[in-house]
Give the backbone structure.
Amino acid sequence: MELRREKKLLRAQMLRLRKELDQETVRRSDEAGRRLAEHIIDTYRGGTVTAYWSVANEFSTRGLLTLLHQEGIPLALPVILADDTMEFYRFLPRTMLQAGRFGIPTPPLLPENLVRTEEISCMVVPGVAFDLNGNRLGMGKGYYDRYLRRLSFQVPTIGAAYEFQVVPMVPVGAEDRPVRFLWTECRDNIELCRDKA
């Protein structure tokens, strides 16, 4: 119960700070997202890159998605399904997104667009808070933690966050999964959790 309370308090604090962000900081996150796209392009080895469609002052992925698409890199976005699981579906910037669970825009749920875990070459992961051990605090439903459990450790997982979201310690439990890298509007490509499998 104490862990749950700690997470709830940190989540509330981070979401309040994110809501109050000025648009200049959001713009800087979009520039950082473009730098992240350039990094992914430079290290790309095939497969699909998964990211998220940023909403509510999240670290912006618009420039990231645009640049990766211009390079011809296959993209996918998360979809929360009726059975309360998360999967990734292929996305093109010209695709008409539809309202998904929690009001988050998602690509159409066409069976042929479902991305299997073995097709993923890189995952850009959202979060409410991260620490320098790679621990991540999400929105509390565990979708990414459960998906990361299915993913090969060889797949780079990159937490995308604002600098203020990098905190000294994120409270974690046995089911939580870390990311391997962190990218903020102030710092690029911070490698984390090298020894965690």
